[in-house]
Amino acid sequence: MTQRKRLSATQSSSQSARQPGSLVAQEEDDDPTFTQPSTSQVQRGLEKLTSAQVDQKTAEVVQYFLVKDQKKIPIRRADLVKHVVKDYRNIYPEIMKRAVRTFDQVFGLKVVEIDTKNHTYILVNKLEAVEGASSINSPTNPKMGLLFVILSVIFMKGGVVREGLIWNTLKKLRVDPGEKHEEFGDVKRVVTDEFVRQRYLEYVRIPHTEPAEHEFRWGQRADMEVSKAKILEFMGQLHEQDPQNWSQQYREAHSSQASTSSQR
């Protein structure tokens, strides 16, 4: 591919990532050289390896997940195979099965595939999921508190909001996206880059707007980790109202809560 074509492809990818409904992961296609091995291929691969070798590679995969999860970065199968699994790719399903079991039994964590097209995974705390409360639903970390406010605005406004509304809301809380904040640093970068890469938010361009405008939606990780019922409870306390006064949001919160509970 020529340099000009590469540049064109990069620009095209960057532009498509901001189209409504697109996900950041679509900028990074899955590894085309990797094909999920069959059961018989896995079995043949295991016959050539010792139990200690498989255990060691499983431990490396677990470590990779844990390091990425510290920054809430979703893990892509392509990266996992390329950087960790490497020559053991013919037994990838067995390694993942053992890693999932380790997370479940040792760490109390659940591996969730949030993007089946690009095979992207996150770790969810099983105990928090059962109790219905996580660090985001009851934020003590300031950055998670900032995220909780943004997710609350999006949920209460019907699931999609223009970025101007988010910035105005934050300004009322004395968090100005145009100024460096002593706690968050570059607020706009945290919201539009960090939270987006972590899959808490989607930040997509609104078509046919000039100058360009963007809107926010909940990301896939937020759908997995954040309780809409907790948000309504928070809003009720804030405004001294019964959460049921927001009838549409109340129905959505409790229907999604029932749906999530049935999946666990």
Automatic annotation (TrEMBL):
Coiled-coil annotated spans: none
One Pfam family here: MAGE
InterPro entries: MAGE, MAGE_WH1, MAGE_WH2, MHD_dom
Polar residues: compositionally biased ranges: 33-42, 243-264
Disordered: annotated segments: 1-42, 242-264
Domain MAGE: 54-253
Biased composition (Low complexity): 8-17
Gene Ontology CC annotations of this record: nucleus
Annotated protein name in UniProt: Necdin-like 2
Organism, scientific name: Seriola lalandi dorsalis
